[in-house]
């Protein structure tokens, strides 16, 4: 993974927002598209850039592909810290945390 790819991926506000959502739970393209004013194919293109940069990973489960934050990356550690301070990332991260709690209670 090159720094150029990482910085290209982080240069996009929607991609930074996707990373904030994925910081707390795994989501599908459809789950993410429901949170944005964009189509699932557009979200998929953003996820592809994030995956090529090594910032997210994916796993197919049945008919769905679940995306997760790649926590092994130093860049993710730094962006996670920035999300806590960021006026946009913090609320998105808290929203994902609440969703994760609801899902764990339902199971």
TrEMBL record:
Gene3D superfamilies named among the record's database cross-references = Winged helix-like DNA-binding domain superfamily/Winged helix DNA-binding domain
What CDD domains does its record include? HTH_ARSR
Which PROSITE patterns does the entry link to? HTH_ARSR_2
GO molecular function term, any single one: DNA binding
UniProt entry keywords in alphabetical sequence: DNA-binding, Transcription, Transcription regulation
Give a yes or no for keyword Hydrolase in this entry.
no
**In this protein, which residues make up the domain named HTH arsR-type?**
1-89
PANTHER family per record: TRANSCRIPTIONAL REGULATOR, ARSR FAMILY, TRANSCRIPTIONAL REPRESSOR SDPR
Q: What is this protein called?
A: Metalloregulator ArsR/SmtB family transcription factor
